Amino acid sequence: MSDPEEGNEGNGELPASSLGTKEHWDNEYARELEVFKEFGDIGEVWFGYDCQTRVVNWIKESSCISLESNIIDLGCGNGSLLIELACSGYTQLTGIDYSAAAVELAKQIALKEKAKVKFLCGDILTDDTIEDMIGQIDLVLDKGTYDAISLSPNEAKTKRKAYNESVLSLLKKDGLFIIVSCNWTQDELKDQFSSGYVVLDTIPSPSFWFGGNVGQTTSTVVFKKT
C-alpha cells in the first residue's frame, strides 16, 4: 500500500487494488487474446454494451463532433468503443493502451470487423506516446482508465493529476472529453476536472435504490476544454 496522501482512501483516494497495476491488465488481455484466437470471443466490454452504446449515441447526436473529428480513446482495451464508432462512419480514430496484449487484441478484432482504427501501445503518463498529438484532438474518450489509475497502489493522486494534464494537452481549444467511471460520482468527476474545463453535459445511466438513496451504476460526464 502507498502513502495515505498518495494512494489510499484515507485522504479521499480510492483503496489500492491490483486493478490499478499494469501487470493485472497484461495478464487479463493476454488471456483474452488467446480466447479470441481460439473462439473469436472479443472479451469483456468495460461497463457493458449498453454503456458503450449510450456514449456512441451521444457522440452521434452531438453537433460538436463530425465523422472526420480526431478522436482518441485512452486505455482502449480491446478497442470495442472505437470499433463501434468506426462502424458508424467515424474515420479519424486512435486507441492507446499500455498493455501490448490489449493493443494486439484490438488490432485483431478491428481486422475481423473491417474497422479502420489506429491502435498504439504506450503509457500516456510515462512516455512520449502522445507527443505528436498535442493540441490535435477533438474528442478524448475514457471508459474506465481513470478508474484504474485511481486504484494504483503507488502515487495514485500524482498519477491522476498527470492524467488530467495529458488530457488537457491533447485537446484542441473547445475540444471535448467524455469520461465514464464506476468509482467516482458525477459530482466528484466535476470537481476533479474543474480546472481547464466546463461541464457540457452528463449522460444518464440506469439508476438503483439502496438504503433509501438513489444512485447510478456509472457516472458519465462530458467536459469542454476552455
From TrEMBL:
It is found in: Cytoplasm. The keyword Magnesium does not apply. Signal peptide: none annotated. Its main location: cytoplasm. It comes from the Eukaryota. Residues 1-20 are annotated as: Disordered. InterPro entries: Efm4/METTL10, Methyltranfer_dom, SAM-dependent_MTases_sf. CDD domains: AdoMet_MTases. GO terms for molecular function: protein-lysine N-methyltransferase activity. Residues 69-195 form the Methyltransferase domain. The keyword S-adenosyl-L-methionine applies. This is Protein-lysine N-methyltransferase 100633496. The gene is 100633496.
